[in-house]
Design goal:
about 260 residues; mainly alpha; Four Helix Bundle (Hemerythrin (Met), subunit A); 2 domains; 12 helices
Length: about 260
């Protein structure tokens, strides 16, 4: 095994040697999120400004080293084996882009970017919590389920989008004459439709005509069912994924095709 492969197995959470880095990075991510939250409390931040800045510099340095090492060692992965194109492919993967966004504030001052813009971009530190997807088995499982059920989820999305447009249009024509300021246009009415379909019901916008209230009642009932569908799809996907993982761990799946052995 080459040195690069050893490094790759050490930093990649899918392999047992990577558990040390795994725990370290997860701890740093959680501490960064706590620091980001506490920085918004002015009395705490003003009393500990130097400590917050030192911790931020340390975190950025650590995450930058992790990013560079990962970019260097990624060619040990067969999918990214080519020294140039493999790294470029990895560079544009979602998790690699998230890693880059998490360290971006470190590089902007070096290139002479206005510090006022840097302060705005520092909000990108929130992407460090998304880095947990690389190190958490549960979050990786969620991503796997979403990918496997993407067709069903996209179908539900388009149904919801269609329902949103129809409900907004109907409510606009039903209420515009009586409430021209509130239901000024179909796009403006979409705010009411979103609030109603999700059953949030802020109460800032509501119909006053009989036909508008009837439409609202129907849309609210439809919204309960429509927004329950994605949860059901993801729930079924989780059950299937957990069952597959259990069979793999117990050696109940075929190593060649991945099917359950009792199906052969």
């Amino acid at each position: 095994m080459s040195f690069k492969q050893r490094v790759y197995y050490f930093i990649e959470p899918r392999y047992e040697p990577g558990r040390i880095v795994d725990i370290t990075i997860i701890t740093m991510i959680l501490l960064n999120i706590v620091a980001l939250i506490l920085e918004t409390v002015e009395p705490i931040y003003n009393l500990n400004r130097a400590a917050f800045e030192a911790f931020e510099d340390f975190s950025l340095t650590l995450f930058t080293i992790e990013y560079i090492v990962r970019l260097w060692a990624i060619t040990a992965e067969p999918r990214f084996a080519h020294p140039v194109w493999g790294r470029l492919r990895f560079f544009f993967t979602p998790l690699a882009l998230i890693d880059l966004l998490a360290i971006l504030p470190f590089f902007l001052p070096i290139f002479g970017v206005d510090m006022r813009f840097v302060r705005v971009v520092r909000i990108l530190r929130i992407f460090r919590v998304v880095k947990l997807a690389r190190y958490s088995r549960a979050l990786r499982l969620l991503g796997q389920v979403v990918i496997e059920r993407k067709e069903e989820l996209v179908s539900i999305f388009f149904v919801l989008l269609t329902l949103l447009v129809i409900s907004s249009s109907l409510m606009y024509f039903a209420e515009h004459d009586d409430q021209p300021d509130t239901f000024a246009s179909i796009p403006a009415t979409m705010w009411w439709s979103v609030v109603t379909l999700t059953t949030v019901g802020y109460g800032d916008t509501y119909p006053v005509t009989a036909i508008g209230q009837t439409i609202a009642a129907i849309i609210a009932i439809l919204g309960i069912g429509m927004f329950a569908l994605p949860a059901g799809i993801l729930g079924a996907g989780f059950v299937d994924a957990l069952e597959s993982r259990r069979k793999e761990e117990n050696g109940l799946t075929c190593p060649h095709c991945g099917e359950a052995l009792d199906e052969h």
